[in-house]
Amino acid sequence: LRLAGAAGLAAAAGCGETAGETLSSELRPPAPFTVPLPVPPVAVPVRPGRYELAQRAARVEIIPGTTTEIWGFGGTFPGPTLRLRRGERAVVRVRNELPVPTSTHLHGGVVPPESDGYPTDLVAPAGHRPPAAPGGHHGADGTAVTWHDGAKDYVYPVRQRAATLWYHDHRMDFTGPQVWRGLAGFALIGDVEEDELPLPAGERDVPLMICDRAFAADGSFRYPALDPALRETPGVRGDFMEGVQGDVILVNGAPWPVLEVAAARYRLRLLNASNARRYRLALTGGARFVQIGSDLGLLGAPAVRDTITLAPAERADVVVDFSGHRPGAVVTMVNRFGAGPTRDVMRFQVTRRVRDDSAVPARLPALEPAVPGDAAARRRFDFRRTGQGGAAAWTINGRRFRPGEPLARPRLGTAEVWRLVSDFHHPVHVHLARLRVLARGGRAPGPADAGWKDTVDVRPYEVVDVLARFEGYRGRYMMHCHNLEHEDMAMMADFEVV
Ligand code: C2O
Ligand code: CU
């Protein structure tokens, strides 16, 4: 996909719903639906409320018959699932045993600014000397870097409702390659309100981290900025300005896996953890999704959905009922935006009958209404490519990321209406805030925009109005495009809650 200005962008948008360029794998991937679905381990606290996650390299078998070096929290990809409870503060000590600095962000978390994973708040490998400047695009402007030697304690007060969150690296200019290598995991918040619902639970509550990767002939991950010498060249992404996509779809780190299921209801927490790929998920064999939640927790009522579209970082909490299927039946989850190998995602193989007491209640706990009249301010943010050729850049309101220079100063405890305007596919993520889509293209939002969100899928030449509520903490946060290559190419801005 080579783009030639606005006309090319519009054409691309119309046809493909793609948001990047696809790297091909150099080795032969396995036949789909032959590798069992792994479920990430649940993080075990070292003592109540205290977790330790070491970021380290490990060799794992992703493609059967070969090994891949990953960088993972706890040495796994996905990292261990943090099971957090509303009202129970958690402290996560992240120890960096990698060769590069990191910053860890709890995506969707209402977290104090010093624990939010600011891109220049770096945890360095023990003994590394801080650079004079963070490097990358921003090396020249003397941005201050905070430097933690070897480890940092991230404090998560967990005062928010039950939701499917995730955590991932957020290092300035290198989030794309570092997440691509595996630095991501789930953080599931539970609460009493959710416990009281008869939703499928236990081993029938399955988080599914969906992402794409490409593999080199030796089994390593291919990524445009990861050359064999691990030379780090920020901003150099070759022709991958639109974003990096792979041709192998992984779920929980396994290629096109298969999960054996009972003929019963399952709760599936779908996360698009891809750098740039968008998915339109659907089920074969007449199965449908009953969506019960989105990014920041349950919807007010379940919604039957034939397809679920997820831009990078978006989540959908769904229940799928396999009880109409007899043992031996299969249901495949496909990606209607994909072609060839990226059309398949994973398969459910029904193997047994089981007693099922779960249910999806017709009503879920009421959602607070989103009232635009409450807005204390209205602002407009324009996500756009500027410049040509080597000078091309992804910008917000004409600016590349300038750490420490906020574009907005919302007041704590207020709501604002933010108008998001874009020239391409930009999944817009706002830290700290809770978002509700008020209008998309001048119309009332559809089911894809339901519920409280932290990431909003803004498509080419769309105008999306969101209500943003700022609660919890004062301080410096950021908003950015969650296409990780766009983010690394500085499509990010600070805002400061005052
Ligand atoms: Cu999931 Cu600022 O990111
Ligand atoms: Cu973008």
UniProtKB/TrEMBL annotation:
Plastocyanin-like domain ranges (all copies): 60-119, 150-191, 387-497
Keyword Amino-acid biosynthesis: no
Principal EC category: oxidoreductase
EC number(s) recorded for this UniProt protein: 1.16.3.4
Region (Disordered): 124-143
Pfam families referenced in this protein's UniProt entry, alphabetically: Cu-oxidase_2, Cu-oxidase_3
Subunit comment: Monomer.
Protein name, entry field: Multicopper oxidase CueO
Species of the source: Sphaerisporangium rufum
